[in-house]
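Reopening closed ticket. The problem is back. First fold of the pair:
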Amino acid sequence: MLSPEEFKRLTIQQRFNRLQKDGDFVASRFYQSFNVHLFTLYGFYVEIWQTISLGDVAYIEVVGNDATLREYTKDIDLNKDLGIGR
């Protein structure tokens, strides 16, 4: 188990390996020329940024604010998705 600070000190390959082994996928979104994938890892959130055109991993970063997490939920409408009237 690692803290967010310890995770940040790993190389990108080590981060990727750790996410493959212990991370849980949560959601994906698009941002500019990237597919961004959100994972939980040891009680914190991590994003993997992949280029859309090549699929290469450009960044793997700890999510440090709630605004980033809201990007994954902004289009969710549970009432509509579940067919519940308002």
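Second fold of the pair, where the issue appears:
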Amino acid sequence: MKNKVISLDKALEFINDDAVVMYGGFLSCGAAETIIDGMVAKGVKNLTIIGNDTGLVGTGVSKLIATRQVKRVITSHIGTNPETGRLMSTGEMQVDLVPQGTLIERIRSAGHGLGGVLTPTGIGTDVALDKQIINVDGKDYLLEKPLFGDVAILHGSIVDKAGNIFHRGTTRNFNSIIATACKIVIVEAEKLVEVGELEPEYVMTPGIFVDYIVVAGGND
């Protein structure tokens, strides 16, 4: 079996300038804080990041935004991080606001090999500009195309050495879905256990989707 457990420094070798990075976390709950701190320290720049929101100030991906390492955000909510709104208003950072349901379905489409998702959300508004409209049984839908990433950074409450993940409570949020839509998937393990210690019925993100594991809080 491939050894998936690597150091933080090694994990950061997969996250470079101009990368498209998907991240888990709902208002930073379920965010890969150790990996994000490593990205800040590395100084990786010109990132496109994709996730539910831009975190609370001082947590999650808000730290990357505060240090101007992000050129574009694709997200559904920015209200909890005023800096995101300010940079959007000044034109210093591109912000693509996508309804939450549409956002996760676009990511899911990428992970499942689909050509996109049809949704009525945005019909008759500026959201529909330059997008293909498809009529199904007399009703118009927007074709929202899949979203792919270069790297996904996940958080796992308990992770075994094969990469199988248990997400405690609401920390699951986007983590399981983004694991299917990126070329490289790195999970930050709050607790790392041996294969067999995690009961199969507790596995929420299968290890087949996970390439590498980093232990939270350290560089071992």
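Update: turned out to be a display glitch only; the data is intact. The chain has six helices and 13 strands. Residues 149 and 182 are 4 Å apart (CA to CA). Please close again.
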